[in-house]
Structures are given as C-alpha cells and as structure tokens.
C-alpha cells in the first residue's frame, strides 16, 4: 500500500506526524481527497473536518481544523493550521460555549485586531462542531 508523509501542525503543537494512505482536507474550494503521488497543490483550508486513513488502523482519524494552508507534494502533505484539535480531544459543550463567546466578541469588536481574534475563535468553534456532527452522523 502506498503512503505519504502527513504533517498537521497548529500554532501550538504538532497534531499529527506520520504516514497516511488517503487524506481529505476541507479547502476553500470544497473537500479535496489526496492519495500518495498527488500533483503539487497549495490551497487555503477552511474550517471543517480533516480525515486520514492511516495504515494499520481501522476506520479513519479525524481532526477539527479551523483554517490555514495546505501544501501537497507527491510524497508529503502538510497542513499549517490556525487551530487544530484531534477528535478524541473534542468537547461539544465547550465548543458550543466557545461559539457563543466568539459571536458575542465579534459583535462587540471595535477594531481590526479584536475582529480578527473573534473570527479566529469563531472558526475554531465551528470546526469543532462540524467535526462532532460528522462523527455523530458516522455512527
């Protein structure tokens, strides 16, 4: 089975570093499925669910991703994420509270810096909720 090296890195930590046989990334132009030996691509990532098929593991590994950049090379895929959280670390109540707070902060924002911070928090909460919904619908 062919694999590619996958690196998913957030501002705070490396979320995943290892091999994958298939990855689906939510891009600005829709979901992009990537197999090893894919043509090179650079793309913006939108909030959503990043899914990976990892050799030797049943099912897929999911990561909530709040935006960032995707670089694809034939043998390597790199996601530089604004915020990324592995599915096992998601919490629905925390995500809903974060969404409410981010919406309030966006309404109260008075300058570019506070608006950008609120939008980033909103994207992270949306990504977590989308991932939780995806996982709930898969069961």
UniProtKB/TrEMBL annotation:
It is a peripheral membrane protein. It comes from the Bacteria. Residues 4-84 form the ATP synthase F1 complex delta/epsilon subunit N-terminal domain. Residues 85-119 form a coiled coil. Keywords: ATP synthesis, Cell membrane, CF(1), Coiled coil, Hydrogen ion transport, Ion transport, Membrane, Transport. InterPro entries: ATP_F1_dsu/esu_C_sf, ATP_synth_F1_dsu/esu, ATP_synth_F1_dsu/esu_N, ATPsynth_dsu/esu_N. It is found in: Cell membrane. F-type ATPases have 2 components, CF(1) - the catalytic core - and CF(0) - the membrane proton channel. CF(1) has five subunits: alpha(3), beta(3), gamma(1), delta(1), epsilon(1). CF(0) has three main subunits: a, b and c. Produces ATP from ADP in the presence of a proton gradient across the membrane. HAMAP family: ATP_synth_epsil_bac. NCBIfam families: ATP_synt_epsi, PRK00571.1-4. Belongs to the ATPase epsilon chain family. This is ATP synthase epsilon chain.
């Amino acid at each position: 089975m062919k694999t590619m090296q996958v690196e998913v890195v957030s501002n705070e930590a490396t979320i995943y570093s290892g091999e994958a046989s298939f990855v689906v990334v939510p891009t600005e132009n829709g979901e992009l499925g990537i197999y090893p030996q894919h043509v090179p691509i650079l793309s913006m990532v939108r909030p959503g669910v990043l899914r990976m098929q990892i050799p030797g593991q049943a099912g897929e590994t999911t990561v909530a991703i709040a935006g960032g950049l995707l670089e694809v090379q034939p043998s390597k895929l790199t996601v530089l994420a604004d915020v990324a959280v592995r599915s096992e670390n998601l919490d629905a109540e925390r995500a809903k509270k974060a969404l409410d707070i981010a919406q309030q902060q966006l309404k109260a924002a008075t300058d570019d810096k506070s608006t950008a911070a609120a939008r980033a928090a909103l994207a992270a909460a949306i990504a977590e909720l989308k991932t939780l919904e995806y996982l709930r619908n898969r069961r």
